[in-house]
Amino acid sequence: MAKLTAEEIRHRTDPRWNDVPLVCMHCTHLGTMGNQFDEEGWTCSAFPEQIPYGILANHSHHDEPYLSQGHLDPPNDHVYSPKIYTEEDTGRKWHYNVDGTWEYMDTGEGTSSPSRSV
Hints:
Layout (H helix, E strand, L loop, with lengths): L5 H8 L1 H4 L11 E3 L10 E2 L8 H4 L28 E2 L6 E4 L5 E3 L14
């Protein structure tokens, strides 16, 4: 069997190629993670009681504050803020976008459409 290249290994182990991204998992504001099948238990600094299901399921993008955030105590205007990841073999930095796509920080190159359909 031929030895795998670093790129082949990355494609087999990298979450960008193997996981269905739940965008909230890749946001710097995430507080707690709940069950992957419902919204219960998911919280963040924008939604300290519970993240709305539409955002979790990626039906709605949280790139602008929701009206309901203004009624929280205290009110906040937090929106999706991506965690930055670094490829081990290349050192290139990348992140998930609010729509579930991903891109490199240095070139903007990445996926042009979400890696899953909702």
